Amino acid sequence: MLALKVTTIGNSVGVVLPKEMTAKLKVKEGDTLYLTETPDGYRLTPYDPEFERQMQLAEELRRERRNVLHELAK
């Protein structure tokens, strides 16, 4: 478990991520992190959950319509 201290950053508040955490998340200054609520608490990730959902829907559509897509590719 890692405790993060909330600190003032300009007119806002934020947390500073330790170097080890940014390395594990593979993020650097300027990158975007996404905080999503889960049944167990919160999840912090560099991956956009909305984009992931859209890609899953696209994959389902590709599977369902593979014959149509195959014909269009000719």
UniProtKB/TrEMBL annotation:
UniProt keyword Cell wall biogenesis/degradation, yes or no: no
Residue intervals of the SpoVT-AbrB domain: 7-52
Entries under Pfam families matching the protein: MazE_antitoxin (PF04014)
UniProt GO molecular function: DNA binding
Keywords, ordered alphabetically: DNA-binding
Signal peptide: none
Residue intervals passing through the bilayer: none
InterPro entries cross-referenced by the UniProt entry: Doc_partner, SpoVT-AbrB_dom, SpoVT-AbrB_sf
The protein's name: AbrB/MazE/SpoVT family DNA-binding domain-containing protein
Organism taxonomic ancestry: Bacteria, Pseudomonadati, Pseudomonadota, Alphaproteobacteria, Rhodospirillales
